[in-house]
TrEMBL record:
Domain of life: Bacteria
Record's protein name: Long-chain fatty acid transporter
Regions annotated as coiled coil: none
Keywords: Cell outer membrane, Membrane, Signal, Transmembrane, Transmembrane beta strand
Signal peptide: 1-22
Length: 488
């Protein structure tokens, strides 16, 4: 097997359709394959995803309506520059968009607001009314009520009038609660539940090659993150009308790894660790029912919220978002002349990931007792780590053309999952082709078809339990990739 015969296929083993639809918020797969190319090298690529994610109301939802496609199309670019500065020192700049989300609900369902929405489910409203009525009835049978009635009778009121006056006084909190809930219902959000999250990574890598077969590398990573989310519909109860806008913020992390290769047989293996990156962001948050709650203190009082919790709901503070650590293992080897087999195994630490914007968290702690979450709950969280495997075969067809086929599997990050990304992993198949007009540059394109895993969707208040509000099944996605590469 000659390395010349394998050059094109070796390049193509890294191309082109990136993961683009993976567990949780994972997008690019964070490959460093461009940095491991020989000599000086540049590449630029673009990936596009067209998902279909449909479902049906289920679980705790009071209705069973269909949920139209909520997966939005999106695209993201990537680029890389690798320089071999000396025989033993290399340098690289890698740009990608590793994590993201883009979704919007449509139609008539529990994720889209309507005029009939209530701040609490009807069953909860009925329970509050029954509890309030029982409390009033118990008071009217108490010695305190008898004393109050007697006092009014001494002032000249009849027993009937005195009893009615005491009853009205005892019922004031219940009446105020009903009035306040009506005001809150009239001030719930309008529109659709939607989310958009974008990240950008710029990795600066230095490599050291003590011998031609080994490459040790490490570097810094600058990452930016921004996003927005709107919660609408009865699925989110009091949060129906919650909005958060996270302005773009940047912070740093690091990566390190090692690679081993035997070019004569097209053998290449690498392992890369990327650290978590912690962001302290300013999130602009609003809750459409907040003004109604301020006007009607009986609502929060009736829900058992203390004055200290109400003060905390109005406080301001930073929001912490920590993007997860990950490990990539890349393998490649020649299996016959002009043919290589390749595989990528990826682990991402999603089980320790969560997002709790400041106001969202304070409100969740205030009302968490209503849903058995006395310590509050998160906007988004995941229960499992992500594991994914992509493997395939690349073959050089002639001096200008090469192709590959691949299969992929992703474990997902737990089920039930967030309503803002209701799929659990996938299986996929991919096809790609590469055209090399000259030996030092190429153009490649590819397509992948994804069978997305069925998932039950739960709100943040339900996370960690078995309750859910919708069921998503039989969904799919198509991804397209285009890349150019140049050796110099």
């Amino acid at each position: 097997m000659k390395v010349k015969a394998l050059t094109t296929a070796m390049l193509f083993a890294t191309l082109p359709a990136t993961p683009v639809f993976a567990a949780a918020l994972d997008r690019s797969g964070q490959s460093i394959s461009a940095f491991l190319q020989p000599d000086n090298y540049f590449e630029a690529g673009l990936s596009v995803l067209d998902p279909t994610v449909e479902g049906r109301e289920a679980g705790t939802s009071e209705t069973r309506r269909n949920i139209d496609d909520m997966g939005e199309d999106y695209y993201f670019p990537s680029a890389a520059l690798k320089l071999q500065l000396t025989d033993k020192i290399s340098f690289g700049l890698l740009y990608d968009q590793p994590f993201g989300a883009d979704a919007k609900y449509h139609g008539e369902n529990v994720f889209v607001s309507s005029a009939a929405d209530t701040v609490l489910p009807q069953a909860k409203l009925d329970a509050l009314a029954a509890a309030g009525k029982a409390k009033v009835e118990a008071f009217m049978k108490s010695p305190e009520a008898a004393a109050a009635i007697g006092g009014l009778m001494k002032q000249g009121l009849s027993q009937e009038a005195a009893t009615k006056a005491v009853l009205n006084k005892a019922s004031e909190p219940l009446v105020a609660l009903g009035k306040g809930l009506a005001d809150a219902n009239a001030n719930l959000g309008q529109g659709n539940t939607k989310v958009e999250v974008d990240t950008q990574n710029l990795s600066m890598i230095f490599g050291f090659q003590p011998i031609k077969n080994l490459n040790f590398y490490a570097g810094g990573v600058y990452q930016t993150i921004k996003g927005s989310v709107s919660l609408r519909g009865t699925a989110y109860s009091l949060y129906n009308g919650y909005d958060a806008e996270i302005k773009e913020t940047g912070d740093v992390g690091w990566l390190a790894g090692a690679a081993y290769q035997i070019p004569e047989i097209a053998l290449k293996a690498s392992v890369t660790y990327r650290s978590e990156i912690e962001h302290d962001v300013d999130a602009t948050e609003s809750l459409s029912v907040e003004a109604a709650l301020d006007r009607n203190p009986a609502v929060l009082a009736g829900l058992g919220v203390t004055e200290a919790q109400i003060a905390a709901m109005k406080s301001s503070g930073k929001t912490k978002i920590t993007t997860p650590q990950s490990v990539n293992l890349d393998l490649q080897t020649g299996i016959m002349e002009n043919t290589v087999a390749f595989a990528n195994i990826r682990w991402v630490d999603w089980s320790n990931f969560s997002i709790q914007p400041h106001k969202f968290g304070q409100v969740s702690q205030a009302i968490g007792g209503l849903v058995n979450r006395p310590n509050g709950f998160n906007l988004v969280e995941y229960s499992d780590d992500q594991w994914s495997v992509n493997a395939g075969v690349g073959r050089k067809l002639n001096d200008q053309w090469a192709g590959n086929v691949s299969v992929g599997w992703d474990s997902g990050a737990g089920n039930p999952v967030s309503t803002l990304g209701p799929t659990e992993g996938y299986w996929n198949v991919g096809l790609g082709v590469q055209y090399s007009p000259a030996a030092n540059y190429f153009i490649a394109g590819g397509v992948k078809y994804f069978w997305l895993g069925d998932a039950k969707a739960q709100t943040g208040a339900q996370a960690g339990g078995s309750d859910y509000v919708a069921d998503f099944s039989d969904n799919n996605a198509i991804a397209y990739g285009l890349k150019i590469g140049y050796k110099f």
